[in-house]
Specification:
The protein is an alpha+beta fold and 122 residues long. The protein has 2 helices and 8 strands, in the order αββββαββββ. The two termini are 26 Å apart.
Amino acid sequence: MNNPLITLLLGTLTSLGVAENMLWRADNGAQAYCNKDKNTVCFVVINGTTTQVRAIESKNIGKLGITPKAHYEKVVTFPSKWISSTNQGDLIEFTTLAWLKSERYTVRGVVFVDNNGKYIHQ
């Protein structure tokens, strides 16, 4: 990681249990993670730039087409696969698990973050 402050901050968040299911890029130069308090907020950190990709959870729930998010008993989203990293940016898969009437549903979606830290909706 190029930025010592970001490294320290992420290390602190991880040790406190705030960042759950952190996914590292193969070269360890970037990571993706989600925090869950009341709402899930997901981030991608590349070259010291942190990009919020919160919309992925709503997009994944929308793919299910069953009911609005508020009706699910539990929803968990996490980065599941670093699909690619190129000189244009990084493509990361996020998985959302949602429980409705004790039935678990799984859906996946991808986000693309360009080298300037811009989140491109997929």
